[in-house]
Specification:
Layout: E1 2-8, H1 15-27, E2 32-37, H2 50-61, E3 67-69, H3 81-91, E4 96-102, H4 103-107, H5 115-121, E5 123-127, H6 142-150, H7 161-169
Parallel strand pairs: 1-2, 1-4, 2-3, 4-5
Helix pairs in contact: 2-7
Amino acid sequence: MKIGIFGGRFDPVHIAHIILLRIIAEVYELERILLIPAYNPPHKTVHASYEHRKNMLELAIKDEENLQLIEIEKKKNISYTFDTLTFLLDIYKHDKLYLIIGEDEWKTFNTWYKYEEIENSIDIIVMPREEKKKLPLIQISSTDIRKRIKNHLSIRYMVPYEVETYIFKHKLYRR
């Protein structure tokens, strides 16, 4: 089985994540994509708790049969991709795994913990920030969504409806 692995803060998850992951699954013929919310990413700050981010991700993918949330980084002190991949490569040793990362992460990939070992152990798919032949450009970012919420602007259609409802119910990203 061909399986993609996409980790991130999902702070919050947005519609571009879902759309691009669907397209990547089609283009690369992936049967499943594992979504891994980072508990404590070493290079980035999180704005909502792990539980809120995980809950929003569950809501966003509830009808997506090829997308599966897995919580293997929960409660880790620091979430290193190398450690997560080592664990997954052992569990899925009979499958073909692909690491999916954003273009922004690719630009700083050489600063990641054990990046050379990662590069040598798994194929990497880079989600573009610019339009590519098979992957569209979708200009939505979690940073912009958080800014819009802080400034009392609409995030409608930027996140799934259930995620928008969750954000406002729990008063996330207002500061």
